[in-house]
Amino acid sequence: MFMLNVGYHWNWASNLDDLRGVIYLATGNDYARLSRKAIPEYSRSLFDPQLYLSGLDVSRCSKVCARLASFSWFGVPDVPQFDSNGMHRNDWKAQVREHVIDHWENSLPTEETDIYNACFECIEFQLDLSCSHIILPSPLMTERENEAEISAQWLDQSIEAANECEVGQPILATVAIHESTLNNQAFEANGFLDTVVDQITSRTGIDGVYIVIMQAQTAHPFETMSAVNQAYLYLSNTFAQHYDTVIVNFADIFGAVCLAGSATSIATGQSYATRRLCMDFLDKTGGTPLPHFYSHPALWEPFTERDLDVCVSRKCVQRIRDVTRISRPLMDELNRGGSASNLPAWAEQQSNLSAATQHFLIRVRTVMDDLSNLSIPDRIEYVNDWLGSAIARQSIIQRRFGESTVHGKMAPADDWLDLFNNLIE
């Protein structure tokens, strides 16, 4: 099942046809907004408390830290409270942002009572939102050896708090690890990842897992290092042997491979920040984005003019053809030998992203939901065929481009196929 990450812009969820699941992210939604604004109804509605972001550098991302600090489980002292009778929300947000610069402590409570209270408040907040599942808060596991033990402490306190709250919804343990933990030894029998699995599956009161992997640097989702994708695939497949609910977030398109590896739901979003989890939540990202066209058959996101114009001239449009109700005018234009520059919705202009983003989300939702409805053997066959075909298409495109530069990002389909085949062998 496909789930949409909902950050600050809620309109993407309301405009996406047949969307059945959403995950509200704390990084894009402060406490006042979520607790006061009407939440649309979906068959699955989750809230990620994102406790694993407690180590953010407030000097680089005070806006995001302010949103996180508005939630009590981050433990930021004396955060200004929102009063709808006495202030505008923008004024309150400015106050919180100014406050966190001096009070964001980059640390979490260590006393058992304080951890329990943070867990209780986090779970109670999700119950108030009427979430379909409860995601337990968890710190990030990095290269430090004692952090698996710290995560276990939060897990135990969360389970106890969930019992106290008499939670009736499925309870999901958060698996939040940093890419720095993913050396070769992490994947060995009884290595780091097996330790993480054992830590969760040995406890009662857990109905499933919610898996996120933190990456250090901002990059296109297709540039995610192989070890991160391998870990997503390994964890989703291993946890599926224990639970009926395995949600993988921030793996983006690679989530389709995880579904074939027995994950039950995949979440991604419309922007790099909601497609790929990264510590680098800069207040100013620099630059202005240009539109890309997502081709699922070719696993490529070409720029709409500089790349697609070459596709037309080198006669490889059919290799990237991918039709949704949004992309059909573009495909028709390219088939006539035309250019995206002739279509205002697809012209390669700064911030002209609406059509490209909507096409991407529709395409990904369709793929993920269709895959979810297949048996595991049929999913395996789909992924093998899809990745094998993508490898061939990418090779043809690169040959036809010749000396012309391929600007948009291509996914490493050959590496993805190797990872998948190594898992199922």
Task: Write a structural description.
The protein has 425 residues and is of the alpha/beta class. It has 2 domains: 274 residues, TIM Barrel (Alpha-Beta Barrel); 125 residues, no CATH class. It contains 16 helices and 10 strands. The chain has an 8-stranded parallel beta sheet. Strands 9-10 form a two-stranded antiparallel sheet. α9 links the parallel β7 and β8. The mean pLDDT is 92.
In short:
It is built from 16 helices and ten strands.
Cα-based radius of gyration, to the nearest Å: 22 Å
Write down how many β-strands occur, each being a DSSP E stretch of 2 or more residues: 10
Number of helices: 16
**Overall body shape:** globular
Major sheet: 8 strands, parallel
Q: Within the largest sheet, what's the order of strands?
A: 3-2-1-8-7-6-5-4
CATH class of the largest domain: Alpha Beta
CATH topology of the largest domain: TIM Barrel
Number of domains in the coordinates?
Answer: 2
The fraction of residues in strands falls at 5-15%
Q: Identify the CATH architecture of the largest domain.
A: Alpha-Beta Barrel
Percent of residues in helices: 40-55%
Alpha-carbon distance between the two ends: 25 Å
Q: Give the class from helix and strand content and strand pairing.
A: alpha/beta
Mean pLDDT: 92
Low-confidence stretches: none
